[in-house]
């Protein structure tokens, strides 16, 4: 008697081994592109742009789908995540790049109110200061995910935004490369973020998040500014976990409340000592890390909605600034 799972296995092998099935899948992809033209035009993409850039795509990208299907499910601890991203090498390089680009970063801060160390820290965490930005064709990756992922509507809209970038001639099509998920350039903006927040800071009539430091760094600043960054306000400070054992995480505290019987910390701006913030801790007692977070911390989460990310980013910025002062 043929068992049910044998039948299933037979059909799966047939799909994999039979080239006709692969051609059928590719044919469906082309049909999807044709069927999506109406939505693209309603989105504001011209028929010409769609024909020249979307309908010229031939096959969906199997490597993109493989990356999408095999995202790591094992949860990393905060300490491992933190140590991986806040290394001595990254702090040291951040210090060098902050000093090298200080005039530019100061000009950006005057307009967007975001301090240089925060912009440099985002640059460092997103692409290790531009050393890896991704080499996937953005239209290829986004159309693939719009066609065959579990977030079709999201990626379809990003696909259309990418076409909008081409239509508006913000950057040459050949430059549009990034991660398999569609994040672009040294700031890792999705196409929608590029449209709404990227800026031509050096006034050369293109917005280049791949090669232009003025555009890359100013766009990061503008993104945080537009999401509500508060000028001259703190984002977070790492605090001694031993000093908050009897503190309630439901209440707000100042650095002064926590360190009132201890020497002042030289790394903390004096005007921040009495500002109230919330406590966030991760880890067991022996290796617990604790932070006092303020309103700007939640703005950092607009870049990536993860406590791990925002805490790590904020502390990297602090350490780049301390390092710069030494």
Low-confidence stretches: 6-13, 19-24
Main CATH class of the domain at 4-70 and 134-184: Mainly Alpha
Structural class: alpha+beta
> What does the average pLDDT come to?
91
How large, in whole angstroms, is the Cα Rg?
24 Å
Strand content: 5-15%
- The succession of helices and strands, N to C, reads HHHHHHHHHEHHEHHEEHEEHH
How large is the count of helical segments?
A: 16
Distance between the termini: 77 Å
Beta strands, count: 6
Q: How does the overall form come out from the CA principal axes?
A: elongated
Q: What is the level-2 CATH architecture name of the domain at 4-70 and 134-184?
A: Orthogonal Bundle
The CATH superfamily name of the domain at 4-70 and 134-184 is Bacterial muramidase
Largest sheet: 4 strands, antiparallel
Under CATH, the topology of the domain at 4-70 and 134-184 can be stated as Helicase, Ruva Protein, domain 3
Instruction: Specify the oligomeric state.
Output: single chain
Helical percentage? 40-55%
Structural description of this entry:
With 326 residues, the protein is of the alpha+beta class. Among the domains are: 4-70 and 134-184, Helicase, Ruva Protein, domain 3 (Orthogonal Bundle), CATH 1.10.8; 236-293, no CATH class. 53% of the residues lie in helices and 6% in strands. It has 16 helices and six strands. The protein has helices spanning 4-17, 19-35, 37-43, 47-53, 62-69, 78-85, 88-100, 102-112, 116-127, 138-148, 152-167, 191-197, 213-226, 255-258, 295-300, 307-325, and strands at 136-137, 177-178, 236-239, 252-253, 277-282, 289-293. The strands form two sheets. It has a four-stranded antiparallel β-sheet. A two-stranded antiparallel ribbon has the order 1-2. Strand 5 and strand 6 (289-293) form a beta hairpin. Helix 11 (152-167) packs across helix 12 (191-197). The longest helix has 19 residues, at 307-325. It is elongated, with a radius of gyration of 24 Å.
């Amino acid at each position: 008697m043929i068992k049910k799972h044998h039948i299933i296995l037979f059909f799966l092998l047939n799909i994999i081994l039979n080239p006709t099935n692969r051609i059928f899948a590719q044919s469906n992809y082309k049909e999807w592109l044709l069927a999506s033209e109406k939505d693209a035009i309603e989105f504001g993409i011209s028929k010409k742009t769609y024909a020249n850039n979307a309908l010229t795509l031939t096959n969906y990208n199997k490597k993109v789908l493989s990356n999408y299907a095999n995202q790591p499910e094992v949860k990393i601890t905060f300490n491992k995540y933190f140590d991986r991203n806040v290394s001595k090498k990254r702090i040291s390089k951040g210090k060098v790049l902050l000093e090298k680009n200080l005039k530019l970063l100061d000009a950006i801060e005057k307009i967007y109110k975001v301090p240089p160390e925060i912009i440099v820290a985002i640059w460092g965490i997103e692409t290790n200061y531009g050393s890896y930005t991704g080499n996937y064709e953005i239209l290829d990756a986004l159309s693939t995910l719009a066609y065959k992922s579990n977030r079709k509507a999201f990626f379809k809209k990003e696909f259309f935004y990418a076409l909008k970038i081409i239509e508006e001639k913000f950057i040459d099509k050949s430059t549009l490369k990034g991660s398999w998920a569609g994040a672009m350039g040294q700031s890792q903006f999705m196409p929608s973020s590029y449209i709404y927040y990227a800026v031509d800071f050096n006034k050369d009539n293109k917005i280049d998040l791949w090669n232009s430091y003025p555009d890359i760094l100013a766009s990061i600043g503008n993104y945080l500014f537009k999401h509500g960054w508060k000028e001259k306000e703190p984002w977070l400070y790492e605090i001694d976990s031993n000093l908050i054992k009897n503190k309630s995480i439901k209440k707000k505290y100042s650095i002064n409340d926590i360190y009132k019987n201890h020497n002042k910390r030289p790394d903390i701006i004096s005007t921040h000592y009495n500002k109230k913030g919330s406590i966030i801790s991760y880890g067991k007692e022996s290796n617990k890390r604790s932070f006092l977070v303020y309103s700007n911390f939640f703005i950092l989460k607009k870049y990536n909605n993860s406590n791990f990310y925002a805490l790590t980013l904020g502390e990297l910025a602090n350490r780049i600034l301390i390092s710069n002062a030494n």
